[in-house]
Amino acid sequence: MAWSILFVAGLLEVAWAIGLKYTEGFTKLVPSVLTLAAMAGSVMLGLALKSLPIGTAYAVWTGIGAVGTAALGIILFGEPATALRLVSIGLIVGGIVGLKLVT
């Protein structure tokens, strides 16, 4: 259950990071409210820490956030998908998988 909570918290991390772009400096009400809600929800990380080591949980949480935000930046905002960028994202995914396997 802790891994599921951690995964959802990671997705909320992605949601608020992407949401920041849509708030336009917190001048748009609906995107701002949704972004703030995602920020608050992403701290569900604390629930996962009841049974997961902090180093692993935090690394996985931020890894999900980094990979998800980078991928959505490419998809939604036309950011470059260079080979080096994709390899770097793959390395982060590899690290997340490795941490999951050893915990």
Report on the structure:
There is one protein chain. The protein is mostly helical and 103 residues long. It is 82% helix and 0% strand. The protein contains five helices and no strands. α1 (2-23) runs antiparallel to α2. The radius of gyration is 15 Å and the shape is flat. The model has no long low-confidence stretch (mean pLDDT 95). This is Guanidinium exporter. Keywords: Cell membrane, Membrane, Transmembrane, Transmembrane helix, Transport.
Short characterization:
This protein is mainly α and 103 residues long.
Number of helices: 5
Report the count of strand segments: 0
Mean pLDDT: 95
Query: Unreliable stretches, pLDDT < 50, 5 or more residues?
Result: none
Radius of gyration: 15 Å
Query: Order of SSEs, N→C?
Result: HHHHH
The biggest beta sheet reads: none
Question: Strand portion, in percent?
Answer: under 5%
Helical content class? over 70%
Give the N-terminus to C-terminus distance in angstroms: 14 Å
